[in-house]
DNA sequence: TTGAAAGCGCTAACAG
DNA sequence: CTGTTAGCGCTTTCAA
C-alpha cells in the first residue's frame, strides 16, 4: 500500500539492478566483473539497468565478501614534498592495469588526530602497502602483507622489500659534476634522515677521491627551504671561497639560491648549485636547477611490479632494488670563474 | 587433527576477540564503540584481548553493517597545486573531532585509468564530499549526499554548498596595493578557469576605478609556472613601461619572477610582482612573494563545519560562503622608481 | 548489563 | 549459461 510511492533515498543495490534487469543477482555480479560467459542480451539488459538506476557497487560489501580490496595503501610524509608526485604516477600506472587502485595517507597530517595512518590501511584490509616515508620502528605490519618501502633504504619494516635510488651514487654524480667543472671549494648542505646521510656520504667520498676537503653543513636539522637557506648562509659566511654548493634536495637548493642572491652571488656565474630529486620545482624557469633525478616514477613502477608479483602469490624476495640516479644538468651550474 | 597447528594468516575478527576475552561479540562491539553501559572488568578484558590479538576492526564490515562510513571524500585537481595542503589541514582539524576521516583522490591522476574519482567515493559510500576542483557538468552526486565545493564559486554541482574566498575582492586588494605604491603600468597574468576569471575581473575593476588601463595577458591557457613565464614575457616585451605584475596565482608569479630575472629587471626595484593563494612557495626566502591569502585553512574549516552540520541532519542551506581574502605583503613589491 | 539473532550488499562456490 | 546458497565481520535491535 503506497509502497512504491516511497522515495528510497538509499543507493540501489545489486538486487535492485537484478530485479530491474529481470535476472538474478549473481548474473549481475558476473556482468560487472566482466565474465565472458554471459549472453549478450543479458549483458546489455544488466548494463542498462545499472545505468538507469545509477548503480554503484558497494566497496564495503565487495571487500567483505571477496578476499581482497584491490587497493594499495600509500603512506607519504608530507603533501608538500613533491617528490612523491612522480612516485604516485609510477605506482598508479603500474597498478591500474591489474585493477588495483591506490589510497594515499599523510603521516604528519594524521599524526595530530588519529593513530598511525597504517592503522587505517590495516583496518581497510589493503592488499598491499607502499611506505614512502622514513620507516620507524612503530611500523608493525601483519606477516604476509606485501609491503614495499619506497625511496628509503633503511627498511626497519620486517619483511618489506625496498625500492629506492642509490643516494650515494647520486651524490657522487653531483659532486663529480662540480669537480669536473673545475670547482674545488664545494660545500654540501645536509639535513636529517637516512637519505640525507647517504647523500652526505657520497659527497664526502667523491671529495676525498679528488683530494678535496668536504665541507658539510646542516640547517636546522630538516630539509626544508628554510634549512637550505640557513645552511647556505652558514657555509657562505664561514667559507667565502666556496664556489659550488650541493644540497641534499631541491627544496634545500632553493634556499641556497636565496642565500646566494642575498649575497649578490649570481648563479651560476659566481656560485654553482646542485639539488637532488628532480622535483617539479627544479625544472621551473626560475630555478633551472641542475639536479639528480632520483627516478621516482620508475621507483613507483618497480614498487607496483613487486606488489603485483607478491599479491599474485610470488615470494617475498626481501631484496632491495636500487635504481641508478641520473644527473640532470640545467642552468644552475657552470665552471668557476678564474680565481687568483 | 593438527587443526590448531595451522597458522591462521587472516587478521583476527571480533569473534576471536570475544572468545579470547570470554564475552559475546556484541559486548566487544559495545566496548569498541565506547558505550558507557559496560562493566569495568569486561571492558578491560576486551581491551586486553584486542591488544593481545592485534585486532583491528574491519572497515568494510563496519561500513556494511552500520549506516555510515565516517569518511569524507576530497577530490583535488593535482597534487602539485599546493593550495590544497592548507585546505586539507583545515578540513582535517574540523572533521577529526567528530570522528570523521578524509580520503583524498586526485582528478588528473585517476583520469587516465579509472572513471571519475567521484565514482570511487560513491562506491565507498562516503558520508560527504568536498570538491576542491573546478566542478564539471559530469559531477552528478546522489541527492541528499552532503557536498561542498571548496575554493571554486561556480558550483554546477546540484545541491552543493560552496565555500570559497572572494577572488574578485582579493584581486582588487592586490591591484590597489600596487596602485597605492604608485604603479601605473600594471599588468595581469591570467589563466584558465573560473577563479582566474574572477581575479581578472577584480583586477580590471580596480584598474578602471583608478583610471588606469588594465592589461591582461594569458600564457598557454593554464596557470602553471610555464604559463606565468610565457605571459610575463609577452607582457614585458609588448609593454616595456610595465612596472608591476599581478599574477593569477603564486605559481604563475614564480614564472613572472623568472621572466623578470632574464630581462635583468630586479624585483622589487624595477618590477613588483604579486601572486595569489599564499601557497608554501610564496613564503620561501627565494620568492618572498607579496600575495593574497585565500585563507584555505579556513575554507577547509568552514567546509568541515557545513559537512558536519549536514551529516548531523541539518538542512542543505545551498548557500555560498565567501571568505574575505587578505593581502600579505612580502618582499616582491615596492614603489616604482621615479620614471622620466 | 549482557547475549542472541538478523541482516548490510556482495562474491564465490555450487547446482541446475 | 544462469540461479541458489552460504557466508564475509560487523552493527543493531531485541530479549534475557
From TrEMBL, chains A, B:
The superkingdom of the source organism is Bacteria
Keyword annotations from UniProtKB, A to Z: DNA-binding, Transcription, Transcription regulation
Alphabetized Pfam families for the sequence: LacI, Peripla_BP_3
State whether keyword Transcription applies: yes
Citing just one GO molecular function, the answer is: transcription cis-regulatory region binding
Q: Is the keyword Transcription in the record?
A: yes
Q: Give every HTH lacI-type domain span.
A: 12-66
- Protein name per its UniProtKB record: LacI family transcriptional regulator
InterPro entries hit by this protein: HTH_LacI (IPR000843), LacI/GalR-like_sensor (IPR046335), Lambda_DNA-bd_dom_sf (IPR010982), Peripla_BP_I (IPR028082)
Q: Which SUPFAM superfamilies match?
A: lambda repressor-like DNA-binding domains (SSF47413), Periplasmic binding protein-like I (SSF53822)
Amino acid at each position: 500500500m503506497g509502497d512504491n510511492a516511497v522515495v528510497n533515498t538509499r543507493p540501489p543495490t545489486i538486487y535492485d539492478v537484478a530485479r530491474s534487469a529481470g535476472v538474478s543477482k549473481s548474473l549481475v555480479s558476473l556482468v560487472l566483473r566482466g565474465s565472458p560467459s554471459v549472453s549478450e542480451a543479458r549483458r546489455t539488459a544488466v548494463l542498462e539497468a545499472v545505468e538507469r538506476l545509477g548503480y554503484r557497487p558497494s566497496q564495503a560489501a565487495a571487500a567483505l565478501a571477496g578476499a581482497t580490496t584491490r587497493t594499495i595503501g600509500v603512506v607519504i610524509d608530507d603533501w608538500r614534498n613533491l617528490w612523491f608526485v612522480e612516485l604516485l604516477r609510477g605506482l598508479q600506472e603500474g597498478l591500474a592495469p591489474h585493477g588495483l587502485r591506490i589510497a594515499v595517507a599523510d603521516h604528519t597530517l594524521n599524526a595530530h588526530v588519529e593513530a598511525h595512518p597504517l592503522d587505517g590501511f590495516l583496518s581497510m584490509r589493503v592488499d598491499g602497502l607502499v611506505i614512502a616515508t622514513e620507516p620507524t620502528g612503530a611500523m608493525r605490519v601483519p606477516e604476509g602483507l606485501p609491503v614495499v618501502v619506497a625511496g628509503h633504504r633503511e627498511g626497519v619494516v620486517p619483511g618489506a622489500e625496498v625500492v629506492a635510488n642509490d643516494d650515494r651514487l647520486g651524490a657522487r654524480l653531483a659532486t663529480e659534476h662540480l669537480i669536473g667543472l673545475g670547482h674545488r671549494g664545494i660545500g654540501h648542505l645536509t639535513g636529517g634522515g637516512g637519505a640525507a646521510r647517504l647523500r652526505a656520504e657520497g659527497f664526502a667520498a667523491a671529495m676525498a677521491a679528488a683530494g678535496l676537503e668536504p665541507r658539510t653543513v646542516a640547517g636546522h636539522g630538516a630539509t626544508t627551504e628554510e634549512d637550505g637557506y640557513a645552511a647556505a648562509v652558514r657555509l657562505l659566511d664561514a667559507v667565502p671561497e666556496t664556489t659550488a654548493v650541493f644540497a641534499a634536495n631541491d627544496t634545500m637548493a632553493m634556499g641556497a639560491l636565496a642565500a646566494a642572491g642575498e649575497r649578490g652571488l649570481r648563479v651560476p656565474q659566481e656560485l654553482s648549485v646542485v639539488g637532488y630529486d628532480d622535483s617539479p620545482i627544479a625544472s621551473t624557469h626560475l630555478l633551472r636547477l641542475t639536479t639528480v633525478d632520483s627516478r621516482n616514477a620508475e621507483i613507483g613502477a618497480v614498487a607496483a611490479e613487486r606488489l603485483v608479483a607478491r599479491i599474485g602469490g610470488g615470494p617475498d624476495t626481501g631484496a632491495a632494488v636500487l635504481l641508478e640516479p641520473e644527473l640532470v644538468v640545467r642552468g644552475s651550474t657552470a665552471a668557476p670563474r678564474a680565481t687568483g
